[in-house]
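[[Encoded backbone]]
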Amino acid sequence: MFEGNEMSGLRSALEEWAAQDLSEVGLDELADDLVELELTSGLLESERARRLSQFDSVAGPGRQGYPSLTAFLIHRCRMAAGRARRLVGLAHTAARCPSVQQAWTDQRISTDQAHRLLETSDAAPGPFGDAEARLVGIIEPLTASETRRALQYWHQSVAGGDESELEHEARRGLSLSRTIDGMGRLDGWTTPSAYESLRAMFDALMPPPTQGDIRTARQRRHDALEDLARDYLDRGDVRQVGGERPHVNVIADLEALQGIAGGRHEFGSGEVVTVQTLRTLACDSSVSRIVLGPKSEVIDVGRRTRVIPAALRRAIIARDRHCTWRGCDRGPRWCDVHHLTHWADGGGTEPDNLALLCRYHHTLTHRAQGSNRGPPVRS
């Protein structure tokens, strides 16, 4: 048993590290510390998996008053439910793989290598049990990427290429849902070939971030996917500037277009949209006037017209060539034509009041205008 004072000693050592002034630590020492931290965190994770398995095997959660090990972690360790479930699954798999657990504890394999082995065990539990010790020995000298590739080859050899492909085809799928706060959630699994296509697409659509771009990789990937969807819907089979945008319908009153919330401002699906997002979308769009009577009956429907005529759009593209945000060279295919003074506020649709902005910087510009901070355009 690990004595309480020994556990306190471990925590005290970590607290001592946390109190250290890093500005006084040399470069070589920092590098060595990072390596040691990775080794230590791997050992701690391995030990947690071992103790979780043991605690569960002796009915610890029930004897502590919890219906499951996951519930224990959520309450006692204040974990998120998803993370608690992942740790419990990892612990149960590690308990079935003693060679992996021992190599992980002995630090003969890294935490990432251990995770790959345990994932492979879940994918092919029968064959893995017979080959476990041999696989551990094979991957010990390998890097994390080499480990993944070696285990993929092994899995295909035991599962059969055709069976593996059929399994991938059966598991593939995407789900798209909307949360209570209006956010969308995209989740799913792709086949290996689809993954490579998506990875190549993101590589092409995600140039190195410009100065001041503080988006995370996940956020930039989201924006790249939105750019691709909008480009497809804008253009379809027509590869020309000025194509219609029928794919996002917004219903709003004049006050909302002027930035005043409280009236009607929603997507065609019925989901409420913020007035700031509404103004961003309306800046470069098609507009239809609909006049409603006192009982919401339709009295008049005007012809849909482009806010930015196609010829003017071509002229702005010829002049600006790319996004006009300082340091950004995103091409016109991924840009909107922005009104420096919004047309709903009386701004004219004329060259001096228009500028190309990529969709990310277009959003930032409207956000900055809402807080009276002007963006660095036309520099």
